[in-house]
Amino acid sequence: MRRAPAVGAALLAALSACRSPAPGGLTLLFLGRSPAAALGGSSWAPDPDNSRIVAFDHRLRVVRIVTGPRLSVPVAVAPLGADLLVTERTGEGVVLDTAGHPVREWESPNVASLYAATAGTATPRVVAVRSPYYVPQFAAEVDTAPLIRVLDTLGRPVEGLATVRVPAAPFLTHLVNAGAVAVGPDGAVYFAPLVRDEIRKYAPNGALRWTTKRGLFARESDPEFLPPRGREVQVRHALVNVALALGPPPDGRLYVLGSDDSAASKLRVDVLDTATGTILATRRLAPRETAVAVDARGSIAAFDADSLLRGASAAGREAFEPAFALPDLTGDTVTLARFAGKVTLVNFWASWCDPCREEFPHMTELYREFSRRAFEIAAISDDVDRGKMAAFVREFRPPFPILVGGGRMKQAYHYRGLPYSVLLDRQGRIIERIFGFGGAEEFRELHETIAKEVRAP
Q1: What is the pLDDT of residue 280?
Q2: What pLDDT digit, counting tens, does each position of 62-85 carry?
Q3: What is the value of pTM for the model shown?
Q4: N or C: which end of the chain has fewer CB within 10 A?
Q5: What pLDDT, on the 0 to 100 scale, is given for residue 121?
Q6: Strand-by-strand arrangement of the 126-130 sheet
Q7: Residue 196: is its pLDDT beyond 80?
Q8: Strands 420-424 and 430-435
Q9: What is the DSSP letter of 429?
């Protein structure tokens, strides 16, 4: 999640079934398996592995990078009027302006949601469906639950469209009803179930306008439980639809990123007429064709996403803000300035956070592997209960400084969850953000990053 992707080979040749794309006029539709958004003359796409949003110009050159603690694992970007609506993997909605400044965020109305919205309208229409990117638990639902939730621009549900399909195994309802979604300029909603060979169009009032099938399977069935392997629950299903995007004006066609195989390893793009649902063209993607764009004539171009993202690796580092001034366990005030000149890991934790308990021994080991002249850790507790914080410290006896945040840190730093860490260079600038606890392998990579930074002139 934390590291910039390796630079791929040169951009793959951009070919469509009928003609070559017009030069200099490309709009990105999909980056990896995520939908992009066209807004303000740029294509905005999530880069979940690096916790950021990347903007591309019409030649697919990187022109802006947006990072921040609100962006943990962004999986989709949609236009929301003049702003960007970002879907986090765990279902939260984050609204940013095109300068990258946060406007608002909201909790998921489903167990985990995927969002879409209209662009260029005075009153954008926002919808949420069950996310295909994260099915965190098996959840049963009643057969009257809405398939599509209409939200206001503050993320509050105001209406429901269509209803869910409850399978024979009700605890698989989220999986059966998860899918890709897009909203047309007229308010129509396009939905493609993750595990079913269907693409649907709903009118603004929820009436089903058409359903299109590709004919991928001679016989199609709902997902079903398989005999468990130990404690691991097995489910049989096929991944069919991955993401949806509407072509930019005047194109207006629907582009469906889908799969030819049940594991979604052989990807394809189907182009549909939005009025009838007719499949107008199909482009099968080679393994390294991991980004899809369209030109002004509607010709599809496919690229290596790593090559597109190489322009993002040269971005400058941002300052860590706000600078803290917090008491340590003895009551003395410790400021961020105290760590100037050292590579520093600022870690946010709490006694009630189980992954924090797993992480602390790794931080202790990391702390002892570098000298105090080169590296420091500032571990900031976000406990409200001082007694529970003290009990945690007595249990783990960390050798690094513990600072008392008093339950105010999430409000100040807007992080998604705990643990959350920020690695700073000697000038107090952000090298990388670390969301959650990634185990021993994550700390091995972190050790390499710190060692490299310590050696840097």
Answers
A1: 97
A2: 999 999 899 999 999 999 999 999
A3: 0.85
A4: C
A5: 66
A6: 113-117, 126-130, 146-151, 157-163
A7: yes
A8: antiparallel
A9: B
Tokens read off for 269:
């793009």
Residue with tokens 């990807």: 267
Q: For tokens 């490299």, what's the residue? A: 452
